[in-house]
């Protein structure tokens, strides 16, 4: 059986996953994967059972490869800016159809 | 979310190989391309089966929940037509169930449309009383697509199981992957599933058809005998793989997703209720939290839609569809015509953010306040006039 990942390995993977998550162009996916990465690694951090930890780490490694590909695809096709992303969040500041 | 969902990027990634390189037909048994595709389809089938606690051989791929519903309702009824002539469903079912039943009634079947209680839930005693010796099928949806009402499927399954020869079908397009569903624990014989409600691709769904004890149905589509002869036609490998991956992720993420939409729907309700009065929530408050259906009294429904439609479009946010027709589902719940007219359905899902909910709330509050300021009805209500006491026909002259 593979030996459990070291603290440093986990930290590296966390940073790589977080960085990849932030490169999604689409607002919703970007936010989701950033939040989820934090949750997943918080769980990994809490895990004490070495066997469980190895599986969780393995899953996270696999997921990073998926995320990397998905993020590239999303940069190519995705990311039209939503009104909710604009800085002035007040409704009256947002142009509606018919406004000039 | 219940209108539709965006495809999860992880689902797209799983589908890509089958659109780029692996174009084999899963039914070609003579070469490796075919085997690869077959393996992928079977893995997808297993993931879907696992989501609902079924055996993977019981899963039939279709083009979506509408096809599954048609196939099951018409198929079971027509197979047993010599001995059985009766089908039970509810008034709040999805259109494709109601319309399949209407078609069957033209063919001479007797259909009972059960009423629902004011909270949208079926009364089990009423259901049991409606079952007859010649009943072939009971079809009741698990989660309502307009109100989020969750039916007591386990209890309904137990009632139907008591009657030998009556099959229980549930349209679980809105339930599977969002709340726990188990075909054995709930005594479900047939089930319809959809991929695009669980962050999978559009144009694909599945039917669960129990093999032990065997449920027999007459196929609608004839041909090469694929999918146990129930749904002929070349399998759409990329779509099935996508649905399988969506099901796998849905099972893994169910708890997290549920907690997320619960938090969002509480945020939405508290925010709107704190600033707008006379808001009625349609359906059982204990329903699926990802679907919130609200009626805004004294606001003309169509104007509300017009004002909000642009916003939903421009923000691409969580606020989803509402039809101009007063909803038959809401009327079945006993909602007055005007309330059914001014209802809005909010769908929240895995990818909805708190900022979006805040954004939509601000717009709703602003729009409803503005429309009420313009409304003569609202003015009368403020002055303490009971709207229902007015005889409108005289005012026309």
Automatic annotation (TrEMBL), chain A:
| Pfam families registered for this protein in UniProt | Complex1_LYR (PF05347)
Give the GO terms filed under biological process for this record.
iron-sulfur cluster assembly
Q: Which GO terms describe its cellular component?
A: L-cysteine desulfurase complex; mitochondrion
Specify the Complex 1 LYR protein domain's residue ranges. 10-65
InterPro entries in the record: Complex1_LYR_dom, Complex1_LYR_LYRM4, ISC_assembly_LYR
Name the family: Belongs to the complex I LYR family.
Protein name according to UniProt: Complex 1 LYR protein domain-containing protein
From TrEMBL, chain B:
Q: What is its EC number?
A: 2.8.1.7
Family annotation (Gene3D superfamilies)? Aspartate Aminotransferase, domain 1, Type I PLP-dependent aspartate aminotransferase-like (Major domain)
Q: Required cofactors, per record?
A: pyridoxal 5'-phosphate
Enzyme kind, highest EC tier? transferase
Give yes or no: UniProt keyword Transferase: yes
Boundaries of each Aminotransferase class V domain copy? 2-358
Query: Could you identify this protein by its name?
Result: cysteine desulfurase
Annotated GO biological processes are:
[2Fe-2S] cluster assembly; tRNA thio-modification; tRNA wobble uridine modification
Write one Gene Ontology MF term: pyridoxal phosphate binding
Top-rank taxon, per record:
Eukaryota
Q: What does this protein do?
A: Catalyzes the removal of elemental sulfur from cysteine to produce alanine. It supplies the inorganic sulfur for iron-sulfur (Fe-S) clusters. Plays a role in both tRNA-processing and mitochondrial metabolism. Involved in the 2-thio-modification of both 5-carboxymethylaminomethyl-2-thiouridine in mitochondrial tRNAs and 5-methoxycarbonylmethyl-2-thiouridine (mcm5s2U) in cytoplasmic tRNAs.
* Catalytic reaction equation(s): (sulfur carrier)-H + L-cysteine = (sulfur carrier)-SH + L-alanine
């Amino acid at each position: 059986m593979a030996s459990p990942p070291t603290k440093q390995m986990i930290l590296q993977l966390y940073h790589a996953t977080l960085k990849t998550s932030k490169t999604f162009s689409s607002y919703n996916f970007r936010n989701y994967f950033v939040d989820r990465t934090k949750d997943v690694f918080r769980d990994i951090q809490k895990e004490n059972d070495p066997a469980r930890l190895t599986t969780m780490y393995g899953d996270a490694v696999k997921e990073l490869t998926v995320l990397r590909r998905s993020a590239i695809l999303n940069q190519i096709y995705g990311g039209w800016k939503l009104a909710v992303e604009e800085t002035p969040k007040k409704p009256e500041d947002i142009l509606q159809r018919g406004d000039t | 979310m219940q209108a539709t969902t965006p495809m999860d990027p992880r689902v797209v990634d799983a589908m890509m190989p089958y659109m780029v390189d692996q174009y084999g037909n899963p039914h070609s048994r003579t070469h490796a391309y075919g085997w690869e595709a077959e393996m992928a389809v079977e893995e997808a089938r297993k993931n879907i089966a696992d989501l609902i606690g079924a055996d993977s051989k019981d899963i039939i791929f279709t083009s979506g929940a509408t096809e599954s519903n048609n196939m099951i309702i018409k198929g079971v009824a027509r197979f047993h037509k010599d001995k059985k002539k009766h089908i039970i469903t509810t008034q709040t079912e999805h259109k494709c169930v109601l319309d399949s039943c209407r078609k069957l009634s033209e063919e001479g079947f007797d259909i009972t449309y059960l009423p629902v209680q004011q909270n949208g839930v079926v009364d089990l005693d009423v259901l049991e009383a409606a079952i007859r010796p010649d009943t072939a099928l009971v079809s009741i949806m698990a989660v309502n697509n307009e109100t989020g009402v969750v039916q007591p499927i386990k209890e309904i399954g137990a009632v139907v199981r008591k009657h030998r020869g009556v099959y229980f079908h549930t349209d679980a397009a809105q339930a599977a992957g969002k709340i726990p569903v188990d075909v054995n624990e709930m005594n479900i014989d047939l089930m319809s599933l959809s991929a695009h409600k669980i962050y999978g691709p559009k144009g694909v769904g599945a039917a669960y058809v129990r093999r032990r004890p065997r449920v027999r149905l007459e196929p609608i589509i004839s041909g090469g005998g694929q999918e146990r002869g129930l749904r002929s036609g070349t399998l759409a490998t990329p779509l099935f793989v996508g649905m399988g991956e969506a099901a796998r992720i849905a099972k893994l993420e169910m708890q997290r997703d549920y907690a997320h939409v619960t938090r969002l729907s509480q945020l939405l309700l508290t925010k709107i209720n704190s600033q707008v009065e006379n808001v009625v929530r349609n359906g059982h408050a204990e329903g699926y939290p990802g679907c919130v259906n609200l009626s805004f009294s004294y606001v003309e429904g169509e104007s509300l839609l017009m004002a909000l439609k642009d916003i939903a479009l421009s923000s691409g946010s969580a606020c989803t569809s509402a039809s101009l027709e007063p909803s038959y589902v809401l009327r079945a719940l006993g909602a007055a015509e005007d309330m059914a007219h001014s209802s809005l359905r909010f769908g929240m899902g895995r990818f909805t953010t708190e900022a979006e909910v805040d954004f939509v709330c601000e717009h709703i509050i602003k729009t409803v306040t503005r429309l009420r300021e313009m409304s003569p009805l609202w003015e009368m209500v403020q002055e303490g006039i009971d709207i229902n006491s007015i005889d409108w026909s005289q005012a026309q002259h």
